[in-house]
């Protein structure tokens, strides 16, 4: 157990030394990158999670912007950008997809998006489409019903003038409403008098 503890302590110290050396190396590379005038961004080799976190920390201390890209843990790498050349969202999306950033293609995409937005705006200004089906169902059945069948039928049809009206001569009860009500009241009074 003491030997194992000593070995572990030695490994931890060695790992700590490696991290300190890696940090110094990254600080040097980042300072070289800052001093290089024609380089807006720098891509570092793929590294493990701890090394990437060290590099992100170094970049943040130096006032740079840094992002990690890549799918697998083994192939993930860090890109460091100078603040004045900070990447756009489109550029970051291209790097996340594993593509190289092409400003001309990005400009073309932006222009197409603007055209689509203008078309959508014009569509909204025209207002909603009128409700109803996009075509007339009568067109589908024109060969069966003809072009003016419904209009002709409506013209020839005549309303029955007596519909809903019953002549007084045909009514059985010719009393008025008041007369009928008075008769009903009289019958009620008669029944009540008989019950008493």
Give a description of the structure.
The chain is mostly helical. Helix content is 58%, strand content 7%. The protein contains eight helices and three strands. The chain is elongated and about 125 Å long. The model has no long low-confidence stretch (mean pLDDT 82). GO terms for molecular function: nucleic acid binding. Keywords: Coiled coil. InterPro entries: R3H_dom, R3H_dom_sf, R3H_sperm-antigen, SPAG7. This is SPAG7 protein.
Structural class: mainly alpha
By DSSP, the count of extended strands is 3
Number of distinct helices: 8
The Rg value, from CA coordinates, equals: 46 Å
Order of helices and strands: HEHEEHHHHHH
Sheet with most strands: strand arrangement: 1-3-2
* Main β-sheet description: 3 strands, antiparallel
Alpha-carbon distance between the termini?
A: 119 Å
Helical content (DSSP H or I, runs of 4+): 55-70%
Strand content: 5-15%
CATH class group of the domain at 2-87: Alpha Beta
Residue-averaged pLDDT: 82
